[in-house]
Design a protein that fits this description.
This protein has helices spanning 15-22, 31-44, 62-71, 80-88, 105-114, 123-133, 171-180, 199-213, 241-259, 271-274, 307-310, 398-402; strands at 2-4, 7-10, 13-14, 26-30, 50-55, 74-77, 96-98, 117-120, 139-144, 166-167, 185-189, 221-223, 264-267, 278-289, 294-298, 317-319, 327-333, 341-349, 356-359, 380-385, 388-393. 29% of the residues lie in helices and 25% in strands. α2 packs across α3 (62-71) and α2 crosses α9.
């Protein structure tokens, strides 16, 4: 989003025009930014045989999935519903990897029936899988490297107390299970967490996974997950993707030479690809001054954007109605009957009632975590592609809220 002659634009489209056309609250995504991020990561890995699988839990609108498919992306899924969505979006089964957690063998069997790549993260399900399929259906195995990484404990998934993955200390047990049940292991996987800034921490996890890989002779690919940090605040630090690509390329190519053949290196970014492409717009309902605080109360709440309350996440907020106004200090709050504070004591261009505020970095884990708390409607979604704003999700109505409820006769 750029300020041009006093007007904010996204890929040449004035944002206030979009808000007037589709109303607020409103999620808006820019495909130009998605494409730039995808190409940047692919370029960083150009020295390897690589594949990028978009982690669709970040933003699962079918139009976004189809856009990444056009770019050549595969798809990372975590539920059978995401698998079905990916197939509906046009991905072929071999380009979809299914990495669930804590699901039953029945859901794994559904994935096998659909023909996608299956990634298993616990010994119990792996044993059941082996008893059912033996070497007739290949499998990927998710390892836990026991590395604490990520910007928040709730999004750190590779540490020793995490529910995710098979511990690297259980490798010998894993090998015996694979051998006794004749399981065909085609891939290994890890994902240590989100918002990883230190490239060397990521590399330590990669080295541990490659140590495990030496004991599996029939691998086709190794998936190193993602978790790359993006900039949330002005002048914020982010993962150096070029440094990561250079070091991972060197490490992986050396491993492949030792392994005896070229494998495919895979990554599954979600936030990195879509976070900065997304903007969330809302209207200021009321400016309320108390003895201690000036509140800007907006027409949205934690039901639409839960990350600040759930993860203590920072989202940069701008007043797009008054971009060059005098900065004043506000606490931005929602309209939910909870303490849904988006920002405390934040400097924002002077706000008046009716102004439109923009939350940046709203492309990942924002709309996908929206809900109907307080019986509020979920917002609309708009995609800006090649200079045109198009509605991709309609705003909900009361009919949507009541759709699956059954009214009894009283």
């Amino acid at each position: 989003m750029n300020l041009k002659e006093g007007v904010y634009e996204i890929s040449g489209v004035p944002v206030l025009d979009v808000c007037r056309q589709f109303n607020t609250p409103l999620y808006v995504y820019d495909t130009a930014k998605m494409e730039a991020q995808y190409k940047r990561l692919s370029k960083a890995l150009k020295g390897t045989k690589h594949k990028i699988n978009y982690a669709c839990k970040a933003l699962s609108n079918i139009n976004v999935l189809r856009f990444f498919k056009q770019l050549g992306s595969g798809l990372d899924t975590v539920s059978i519903q995401e698998v079905q969505l990916g197939l509906k979006a046009g991905f072929v089964p071999k380009d979809i990897i299914f990495t669930p957690n804590g699901v039953s063998i029945e859901e794994i069997k559904e994935a096998v029936a659909l023909g996608v790549k299956v990634n298993i993260d616990n010994l119990s399900i792996l044993e059941q899988f082996g008893a059912l399929y033996g070497n007739t259906y290949p499998v990927c195995i998710r390892m836990n490297p026991h590395i604490m990484a990520g910007g928040n404990l709730k999004i750190s998934t590779g540490h020793i107390d995490s529910k995710f993955g098979i511990s690297i200390h259980q490798t010998r047990h894993l090998e015996r299970l694979v051998k006794s049940l004749n399981i065909q292991v085609e891939g290994l996987h890890m994902h240590t967490g989100s918002d990883i800034l230190d490239v060397d921490v990521f590399l330590r996890g990669a080295e541990l996974l490659l140590d495990v890989a030496r004991d599996f002779p029939d691998l086709k690919y190794i998936d190193f997950g993602s978790g790359f940090k993006v900039a949330y605040k002005p002048n914020d630090m982010a993962t150096d993707i070029e440094e990561l690509g250079e070091k991972m390329t060197r490490l992986f190519n050396a491993f492949c030479k030792e392994y005896g053949r070229e494998l495919e290196i895979e990554f599954e970014p979600g936030k990195f690809l879509v976070s900065e492409s997304g903007y969330f717009f809302c209207k200021v309902n009321v400016v309320k001054t108390t003895t201690a605080t000036v509140f800007a109360g907006v027409d949205t709440g934690l039901n639409h954007l839960i990350r600040p309350m759930f993860y203590d996440a920072y989202h940069h907020i701008e007043n797009v109605s008054n971009p060059e106004g005098r900065p004043r200090v506000y606490t931005v709050v929602g309209y939910i009957c909870e303490t849904d504070t988006f920002a405390s004591d934040r400097q924002i261009s002077e706000i008046t009632e009716g102004d439109i505020l923009c939350f940046r970095n709203a492309g990942a884990y924002c709309f996908t975590m929206a809900n109907n708390y307080n019986s509020r409607y979920k917002p609309a979604e708009v995609l800006i592609h090649k200079g045109k704003a198009q509605l991709i999700t309609e705003r909900q109505t009361m009919e949507d809220v009541l759709r699956n409820q059954i009214e009894l006769e009283w």
